[in-house]
Amino acid sequence: MDPHPLAVVTACGDPRFQRPFKYFTREELGLQRRDFVPIKIAGGGSAILAHPQQLKDEFVSLVRQIRFYISHFGSIRRVILIGHEDCGFYRGISGLEGLADKEREDLPVAMNMLRQSIDLHIVIEAYYAKFVDLEKTQITFQEVYSQSM
After folding, report:
1. Can you give the pTM of this predicted structure?
2. Is 63 part of any domain?
3. Which of 80, 2, 82 is nearest to 37 (CA)?
4. How many domains, in total, are found in the chain?
5. Does residue 2 fall inside a structural domain?
6. Residue 93 lies in a domain
7. Is residue 105 part of a domain?
8. pLDDT tens across the length of the chain (149 residues)
């Protein structure tokens, strides 16, 4: 089998979101499992990409991974960042703990940092997963915006 993925998808490994992430990538983004390279990383990539000064090693590692997949699989044309509400990773970043909606606010910043680090022909998309009920059993996804050059 010669894979030809169309996208790299970065998402958090938080177990509360795994089933919704899977459904969202398949049903809303139209990507079957063979169509994308998943990168599961604490913070979904947005925390790391938006805060390279505080998370320098993680930033370099994540950008290196994304660049590798883009160059290795010439079929990749999209990088998709998925962040989510109530991300525990943010509580561990000095200066960010307790900031409501910081995960969502970081997505455009993360997109801009990534744009500076990868091929300009790649489309970058960002989505935010948010609980819609107080019991935190239902999740909706909001497009933050997409960038292409």
Report:
1. 0.90
2. yes
3. 80
4. 1
5. no
6. yes
7. yes
8. 568 999 999 999 999 899 999 999 999 999 999 999 999 998 888 889 998 888 899 999 999 999 999 999 999 999 999 998 888 887 777 665 555 678 888 899 999 999 999 877 899 999 999 988 888 888 989 998 766 54
